[in-house]
Amino acid sequence: MVRLCFDYGHGGQDSGAFYKGRKESNDVLSLGKAVAAEVRRHGVTVDETRTSDSTVSLSQRSGFENRNSYDYFISFHRNAFQPEKAKGVETFTYLNAGAKSKGLAQKIQDGLVALGFVNRGVKEANFHVLRETKAPAVLIEIGFLDNSSDNSLFDTKGNEIIKVISKAILAQVGIDYIEASVPTQEESGQTLYRVMAGSYSLRKNAESQVQKLKAAGFDATIMIFNK
Prior knowledge:
The radius of gyration is 26 Å and the shape is elongated. Strand 6 (89-93), helix 3 and strand 7 (119-124) form a beta-alpha-beta unit. The strands form 2 sheets. It has a 6-stranded mixed β-sheet with strand order 4-1-5-8-6-7. It has a two-stranded antiparallel sheet with strand order 2-3. The termini are far apart. By secondary structure, it is of the alpha/beta class. It is built from 8 helices and 8 strands, in the order βββαβαββαβαβαααα.
């Protein structure tokens, strides 16, 4: 069974990037948990370094990953530079990473770029969570939090972002993506079908039929239709 470790950057006392009241820690937590739910739908096990707005140190994150055996470690982040001066997505692997890390990073990067983000490429970095984890690892920077156009893409294409990242992960581990089924009107409870048991020109005949139906255990009432 495929087992993944998801890491949602920052949290608690560390908000990460901050711009106009918006926190990186909140964005990546909500997005990452949604991606986790989507891949779990396909039978994949996902463990998370945090599941709420809590403070988790870098050593705690890598220590969490090191306690188990994972197929991949994926860290979710949003970038920042100077307000409105930079934009786009980039995906990182550790220095001289193996084929697995590079393959996953490229799939994720391609999927996000296809949604309209500027392509800043797949890069290497000596980040703690890439260096100190055992599994093939990637770190995703999903647009710049201090760029309005990237924030607009992040918000308006949230479902698509969840989908392309999920599809990239599943493709990397050899699992076909299955579209979520849409409930029918009957399943969603939005439509009811009523059964008529006769129409009568005289009300007393209609009332007599209602009594017979109720005596037989059926819910019945009189509805008036004008020709």
